[in-house]
Fold this protein.
Amino acid sequence: MTKIIFNSKVTGEITDLDVSVNGKAITPEISDGGYAIEFTGNIPAGSILVVTYKLVGMNGTDFSIVYSCFADDNEKKDPGKKSPINGTIISGNTIQQSLKINI
């Protein structure tokens, strides 16, 4: 098993935020003008850590996701979505972002 420490912060005029780690819901905490997400746990070596964010806000709302992930003290990143992830809610008052991090 590999020890995982994952932290992130979501900022922007977000009215609701759902976060899951490998399918398990994580409750974000309101912190310093944003939402803080923390996950510590063990997963099998060679696994993929999937973190999914569903952000809700008005269309046109800008957001930023800053994250860090460590597996047995080695920093890991999603190669396609390096931190920070900046974006805008464009339609439907919602947007989903997913990270896939090889452990």
Summary: The chain is about 0% helix and 65% strand. The chain has one domain: 2-102. The domain at 2-102 is CATH 2.60.60 (Lipoxygenase-1). The mean pLDDT is 95.
